[in-house]
Amino acid sequence: MGNEGDHTKLDLDVIKGMGTGLSNVKKAFEDLDKLGGKYGDDFGDGDLADKFGDFASNWEISREKLTGEIDTLAQIAKAAAEAYEDIDHQLAEAIRGADSPKKGG
Length: 105
Known about the structure:
mainly alpha, single chain, 3 helices
């Protein structure tokens, strides 16, 4: 029975780690250079340059959407970990209160 508390703690650590990891991924996405500006001249003129320009533009739009979704997931994971910790503390206090002798009764 003592292992259940350890398992719950591990799960909270995993959830917290997910929030932190997702925040790090979001920051990495935000810090990426724009592809068009970095490599655009490497393709010269013509169809290949146009296709790369389209790709870079689409990637920028997709990256912005993905960054927003990653941020949302990070916030959810962090909020979930905080909520589970709060519930855990409240349950522990309730158990301590139930175990302590009643005064004046």
